[in-house]
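note to self: dont lose this again. the chain is below, predicted strucutre after it. 330 aa total, dont forget to put it in the shared folder this time
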Amino acid sequence: MKHCLWILLGISMMSAADESPIAIALHGGAGTIERGAMSEELEATYRAFLHDAVTSGYEQLREGRSGLDVVVTVIQMMEDSPLFNAGRGAVYTWNGAHELDASIMHGEKLDAGAVAGLSTVQSPIALARTVMEGSPHVMLAGPGAEAFAQEQGFDPVSPEYFGTERRREALEAYKADEQAGRKPEADHKFGTVGVVVLDQAGNLVAGTSTGGMTGKRWGRIGDSPVIGAGTYADNRSCAVSATGHGEYFIRHTVARDICARMQFGAATLEEAARTVVIEELVAAGGEGGIVAVDPAGKVAMVFNTPGMYRASIDATSRKVVGIYGEDETP
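---
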């Protein structure tokens, strides 16, 4: 009889786990992304990638993988793709180098890790997780972060690994505009990838990775590695990953503000996100967007720019993929 009871209890626990809400949302950068500005082939490539990435992450969550694992795995997919300004597709600094940043946060105990100014680490998000789990610190930067990476077993890559012709041409165009005193034709402020998830254990996790801003100088660091600005997660409210003009996201602590409005002001996820991104940021002159998820598996993908590469699957299994303003397709 005891044996039967244990079997029934095990089945009941498995059923409860299966019924736990899960959700995922991701972005690949926001900015002046307008319909007709890219070829149909390139648009189809972006849509296919976003669809595959969000589906892969959701399936991992269904299998019971931890939110940390899923966030890192999906961001690494994006870091490995030249489509996005992160990892292999990172933009160039003014001096023709690469300086990559990333951060990750777990909402249960508010653990976090971040890295900035990397040039020889293939996966900044993986190193950010290692900073969180394998050091007493939250953020490491530059040569020190790379020395820590080697101590932790990361094999360095040549800075040339991150170079792409598309990004080099963007730098040349940016420099030409700057030196001629013209407003740059292209939008060089944006470009980040990020993932937020709710896993079966009820934990919220957020991660963000970026190559920074085209033509940046003086070791500039944006919001992506700054906990509370570009990344934040708290099981009591939400997980947020941001993309946009980082200086504004830092000044307005965008990611934390959204979570705080939920925790202390009883706002819904959508209300909090829209207030911060559509009202507060716009009033300040800041451009960009966020993806976020709450403890019930509800998703918000809000931006004040013409477009944002994005995809999500919420707790009801509803899947959306979008690039332009009101463009969201199953």
